[in-house]
Specification:
about 15% strand, about 140 residues, signal, elongated, four-stranded antiparallel sheet, 5 helices
């Protein structure tokens, strides 16, 4: 009887572990799923959207226009500036937020002005998403 309970408990743990949802964006080409399912993210915190993106965001640009928005890219800024990205239509995600951004290149660490960091995610994660655009192809 004890063995049956142990097996049942282990089986429950395995089933629970395997039933967890995967992230929506597994590879950069999946970013169009964000636009298709944008109702899941609109009027919700930015951190909910970022949680669904598995590939590393290698560069970001924050714009303080009205409305404010972020441009997320899956290529780093050095590759972009060097011209390796010319002729390629790389994917980018534009995420418009309701609140004004406090984005200043002078206050960001030198050499890392375009990098998305954990500190950025903590600082901007509670901003409210109002629109999502996906541009380009990979």
């Amino acid at each position: 009887m004890k063995n049956i309970l142990k097996i049942f408990g282990i089986l429950l743990l395995l089933i629970n572990y395997s039933c967890r949802a995967q992230q929506m964006v597994q590879v950069p080409n999946d970013t169009y799923l964000l636009k298709t399912n944008d109702q899941q993210f609109l009027n919700k915190p930015l951190k909910n959207l970022l949680r669904e993106i598995k590939p590393n965001i290698k560069s970001v640009l924050g714009t303080v226009d009205s409305p404010s928005y972020f441009i997320f890219r899956f290529i780093d800024i050095d590759e972009f500036k060097s011209g390796k990205a010319i002729g390629k239509n790389h994917l980018l995600i534009c995420v418009y937020v309701k609140e004004p951004l406090d984005w200043n290149f002078d206050k960001r660490p030198k050499g890392k002005e375009y990098q998305w960091t954990k500190e950025d995610e903590e600082k901007y994660g509670n901003l409210t998403v109002i629109r999502i655009k996906v541009i380009g192809k990979d």
